[in-house]
Amino acid sequence: MKNKFFSLTFILTIFFVMTLSAQESKSKDVEVPDNVVFGDLKFLKSEKIINTEFVYDSMGVGKMTENEYIMQKVTELNNSQSGKGDKWLVDWNDRKKFNYPVAFMESFNKKLMKSGLVAEKNASAAKYTMVVKTLYFEAGFYLLGLDIAEASKVILEILFFESNNRSLPIATIFLVPASGGGGAPAMAYGAAGKIAGKYLVQNVFQNNK
C-alpha cells in the first residue's frame, strides 16, 4: 500500500510540475519542456520505422490507481444494472488496446510525415522500439444539455529502447499533460501524439547540430 501511495503521489507531482511549465510557455502551441527530456534522440534521424508499444502499468486514474478505479466503477455499474459493469470493463480494455494507440499514432505520424520516420505496432524488424507508457489518465466528461464539460487528460512517459535490449532506455520523454475533448478520452492521446511528434520534428529532424 505504501509503494502504491508513493507511485500515485509521484505521478500527481509530475502532473502539477508539468502543468506549471506549460502555463509559463509563451507559445500558442504546447511544447515539451527541455527539463523533461532525457537522453539523445538523434539516433532516430537514420530510421524509417520505429516499433511502438503501449503500456498502462501502474497508471493513475483521477486520484486512484487503475485497479481501484476499475473495482469501484464495475461495482457501481453492476449494482445499478446486472452485467453493466462487466460490459464497461470490456469497453475500457478495448479502448486501451485499440482507440488510444490509434489516436496517438495517427497524430504522431502526421507530424512526422516529412521526416521519413513512421511509428508502427508489431514492427518486429525495427531496430528501435518506442514504449508509450500512460502515467496518469482522466477520461473527462460532457453533460449533454447542460454545456458542462471536463477535458480528458493524459501524462505519458515515452521510452526509447534498442528493440533487442530492453534493460535500459536510450532516451525518455515526459510529456506535459495533454488534453482532449470533454468525454472524448482518445482525443487526449491524439493531442499527446501531436506534441511528441512536434518535439521530434523540431529537435531531431530539423536540428542539424
Task: Describe the protein.
The protein has helices spanning 2-24, 66-80, 84-111, 185-205; strands at 37-38, 49-55, 60-61, 64-65, 118-120, 128-138, 141-143, 148-162, 171-174, 178-182. It is α/β, with parallel strands linked by helices and 209 residues long. The longest helix has 28 residues, at 84-111.
Secondary-structure map with pairings?
Layout: H1 2-24, E1 37-38, E2 49-55, E3 60-61, E4 64-65, H2 66-80, H3 84-111, E5 118-120, E6 128-138, E7 141-143, E8 148-162, E9 171-174, E10 178-182, H4 185-205
Parallel strand pairs: 2-5, 2-6, 3-6
Antiparallel strand pairs: 1-9, 3-4, 6-8, 7-8, 8-9, 8-10
Helix pairs in contact: 2-3, 3-4
Number of strands: 10
Global structural class: alpha/beta
> Which regions contain 5 or more consecutive residues with pLDDT less than 50?
1-13, 15-35
Span between N and C termini?
A: 47 Å
* Apparent shape: elongated
Q: Which sequence of SSEs, written as H and E, runs from N to C?
A: HEEEEHHEEEEEEH
Indicate the proportion of strand residues.
Answer: 25-35%
Gyration radius, to the nearest Å?
Answer: 18 Å
Rounded mean pLDDT is 82
Helix count?
4
Q: Major β-sheet, in short?
A: 10 strands, mixed
Helix content: 40-55%
